[in-house]
């Protein structure tokens, strides 16, 4: 070293030590953004250094590490320096791959006894692309937002004329493969009949729900030929494998004439013929339940479902997956696209395409919902759409004992052999009494399923009432005649639904 250089080196070393920031008095976690990061997203964590005066400390080196190694989770950068003014330093964390992950970040400043340490809360990464297995579309709500079971709306009057504007809310739920709702997903809707509005596009909310309003209007449902229900529908490169009719229609109990066949032994494991009958009003028309079964679909972008056998978060060759066709509205319920049916051209080749035989990590995924339009029977339908069960029509007139009562039951369907839309807790049969009896409903409420008919029961009781005090009124001697023509009320929809009125079979008897 040249003479005179050593003093300058010593002076520079002292100057460096004097200018180096001391360890902070406190190192603290500030915040995380976004608060709920998804897999593949970057989340930023901020820490602050504070000096002994309680002021932000600038220029402090801070190192970042994970509390314990987590596969796929990365930190960048691993070192930083606090800002001037606010004393804040940031680190970014990313979870790669498709597996749910969580990690804790530790920030340290200083060394030895002066080292300060701050620990972040647990940062959880969940959520990937929308997944076809988690994509749900139902019309409701039955027991809360997003729940379905609103399967039917009253859409026809007794002359088969459309009652337009009957409304029902339908909700699509978009989720990822881990079961988390996807926020902000754009969902599109198409329908065979009626209108989806005010727009056919909706965006999912904070829990992944996208709501749309459906209402009856033109176009009408497609008239279809009666079919055969089987438990083994066709599923191949062009067929989805959907059942001919949803199970909530009880197609496994179908019979060509379900009213006449009531009471026969059920054969649900056999292929079942769809109910049918000639329309007594319109010549040449054959009525069957699926004439009014309307198909709706919801569409969004996402991945085809797969079984992640090795749990690495991505599809690997050999893992089972659900291959989807291009989205289409299945007007005739046969599980494949037919000319005239609406579809979405996912690959842009100008024609409908079936399954492509490969797993698509990014495509249009879709799901189908179906809803019934039901109608009021005309007087000309009555002989074929009603049947008195108890008492039998040819049985002796029932006698109601003094202070007693009896139950009366019958079945009734709409003109197409569908159960009437029943969307109110008060729907059922009552009233219509002539004579010293009262009529009260025995089964009321919202229908959960829609077989070929409604099973209705009501109670006919002696109008005598025992007094609170004094002798009871004597019985009628001789017994007095009574007659009941029950009035059955069915609400067309949960939203501003009109009431469809059906008159049940006339029953006569006597009461003591």
TrEMBL record:
Residues 271-280 have a biased composition (Basic and acidic residues). It comes from the Bacteria. Residues 265-285 are annotated as: Disordered. Keywords: Signal. SUPFAM superfamilies: Invasin/intimin cell-adhesion fragments. PROSITE patterns: PROKAR_LIPOPROTEIN. InterPro entries: Ig-like_fold, Invasin/intimin_cell_adhesion. Residues 1-25 form the signal peptide. The keyword Signal applies. This is Big-1 domain-containing protein. It comes from Myxococcus virescens.
